Amino acid sequence: MRVIPTAHITLGGIPTTIAGQVINQKKGQDSIVDGLYAVGGCASVSVHGANALAGNTLLENIVFARSIVNNIIDNIPIDQGINAMSSSAGSQSITNLEKIRFNQGSISLPQLRSIIRNVMHKHAGIFRNEASLRQGVQMMEEAYKAFSDIDLGDTSIIW
């Protein structure tokens, strides 16, 4: 069995305030996106930095989720309401999923997964440079195109 260094997890990316409000960063200026919040692994706010272990992040999620709830209670009027969704909301997404599910292409899901895994391992691993990343991006674009020729094999909806 090969043992190699790897990045086991990627956390953060969506900049937020301590109250979980998403921050839009444009041209060096920060502004809060009204009504949009992020918490957990997607949020770029932390009390543990790069040393985030499962127990730590669970505690962090609870703390920041409570902060979000308190911010919503304090800043969003109860009588504001939520706009009703149309009866066809989501139908295009279901159509897209069904198209993928029943597609009879020439590349299997395990084959495509293997291609993506190998590209990421070779071109976006811990030891990388700009040229390697650029080549990896090109190869991932090809993998993305290949997705339209996918054959899932198993069309059941039980995973």
Q: Which descriptors would you attach to this protein?
A:
159 residues; alpha/beta; Methane Monooxygenase Hydroxylase, Chain G, domain 1; 2 domains; two-stranded parallel sheet
Protein architecture, described:
By secondary structure, the chain is of the alpha/beta class. The chain has two domains: 14-80, no CATH class; 91-151, Methane Monooxygenase Hydroxylase, Chain G, domain 1 (Up-down Bundle), CATH 1.20.58. The protein contains four helices and six strands, in the order ββββααβααβ. The chain has helices at residues 54-75, 91-102, 109-123, 130-146; strands spanning 14-15, 21-26, 29-37, 43-44, 107-108, 150-151. Strands 1-4 form a two-stranded parallel ribbon. It is extended.
A few lines on this structure:
The protein has four helices and six strands; from the N terminus they run ββββααβααβ.
Quote the average pLDDT.
Answer: 85
Number of H- or I-type helical stretches: 4
Judging from the principal axes of the Cα atoms, what is the shape? extended
Spatial order of the strands in the main sheet?
1-4
Helix content: 40-55%
Radius of gyration: 21 Å
Instruction: List SSEs in N-to-C order.
Output: EEEEHHEHHE
Beta-strand level of the residues, as a percent range? 5-15%
Largest sheet report: 2 strands, parallel
- Low-pLDDT runs of 5+ residues are none
Structural class: alpha/beta
